Fold this sequence. Notes:
Blueprint: E1 5-12, H1 17-35, E2 40-48, E3 51-59, E4 64-65, E5 68-69, H2 73-88, E6 91-92, E7 95-96, E8 101-108, H3 111-117, E9 131-138, H4 147-164, E10 171-184, E11 187-200, H5 214-231, E12 242-245, H6 255-258, E13 261-262, H7 267-270, H8 291-308, E14 314-321, E15 330-334, H9 343-353, H10 358-365, H11 398-405
Parallel strand pairs: 3-8, 11-12
Antiparallel strand pairs: 1-10, 2-3, 2-13, 4-5, 6-7, 9-14, 10-11, 14-15
Helix pairs in contact: 1-2, 4-5, 8-10, 9-11
Amino acid sequence: MRASFLFTSESVSEGHPDKVADQISDAVVDLFLSKDPYARIACETLTTTQLVVLAGEIRCKGVYENGAWAPGAQEEIEAAVRATVKRIGYEQDGFHWETFRFENNLHGQSAHIAQGVDESGNKDEGAGDQGIMFGYATDETPDLLPATLYYSHRILEKLASDRHNKVVPFLEPDAKSQVTLQYENEVPVRATALVVSTQHAPGYFDDGGEGSDAAKYQELRDYVVGVFHEVLPEGFITDETKIYVNPTGRFEIGGPDGDAGLTGRKIIVDTYGGASPHGGGAFSGKDPTKVDRSAAYVARYMAKNVVAAGLARRCTIQLSYAIGIAEPLSLYVDLHGTGTVPEAKIEEVLPKLVRLTPKGIREHLKLNAPIYQKTASYGHFGRKPEGDSFTWEKTDLVDALKAAVA
C-alpha cells in the first residue's frame, strides 16, 4: 500500500431512490422473519415517480405457503411499504407515501433452489447461491471502518437527524455526500475535498434563475459547512479544503421522482466505500440463508476481530460458496503487510472459532430475526451492536483469537 495518497468515498441518504428501494426490500424481509424465522425471501424493489413495485421469490409460514397468500398478507406487505416511505419523509407531489401506486409481484420460491438450500436428512443447509464475499477492517476509525466512508455516513446521518427534528426548514430526504482525505504514512490527516448535494425546499439555490435566492442558499451552505466541521476531526478542514454544496445548483426534484431507484445498486456505500474488494452481491431484500448477505457479515465480523485483537492494522477476508453446498470452498486472509502473525495461521484458526456454513453463520450471529431494515441506510458496517442488531460488529472473538495464535 502507498504511504501517501488521496482517497475518496461517498454515501447516500435514506431518501436516495436506491436506498428507498433497499429499505422497502428489508422492510419486507423483517415482516416475513417476524412471522417465520426460517422464511425465504428475495425481494427486489423498483421506485419511480408515484410508483413502488416489488418482485421476487418468497416462502413464509402464515404469509405465503403452497403457492397461495394467507388472508390479509398482501395488505400487510403494502402497509409495511407505505410506512417505510412515510418514515423516510416523502410527502411530495412526485412521491407521496399515501398516494403512490403499489404493485406486489412476489411469488413462490423455485422448488429447484429450495431442494439445494433446505436442510433434510443427513444433508446440512446449503448456500443459497454461489459467489464470493469480502470482509474488511482498518484501524483508521474507532469503529474500524475506512475514514472516508465513516465521515461520509456521519455527515448524512446528521442531515437526516436535523431534518426529522426540524432543526432547519430547508432539508428534503434525498442527499449524497463525498469525502476526500489526504493520507500520510497510511494515516488520514486532512480533508482535501468535501461534497454534499441535498434536496431542498423551494428557493434555496443561487443560480441566477427564476426563484433563485442567494441569501437562502447561503443559509443552506453555512449549515452544511457547519455539519462538516462538527463531523470531521478538528484540524481536518483547512483553508485549502475544497467545499462543494449543491454544485449543480437547484435540487428541488429528488428521490424516486427525480431518479428511479432499485434494490442493490449502492453496494459500495453499503460496505467499505471502495477501500476493499466486493464480491458483487447485494444485501438488502435477502434472508440470511443467502450467503451474499450472511457470509459478507461474518467476513466483516472476522476481519474486525482480527484488527481489534491487534493482529493487524488492516485485514481483508474472502469467502466463497457453491449453491446447495454447506461448507465454504475457500477462506483467504490478507493483512496487507500490517500483520503480527502469518495470514496462514489466521486462516487455520478462524474456522475453529466460527462455523462458516450458512446455518453456522446464522446461529452464531443470530440472523434469523427482523433486524434488517435499519441496516439499509448509512452502511451495514461500522454500526453499534444493540441486542440482536449488528451482531457482526461485535469484537467478542478477540480473546479467543489471541489465545489461538499465541
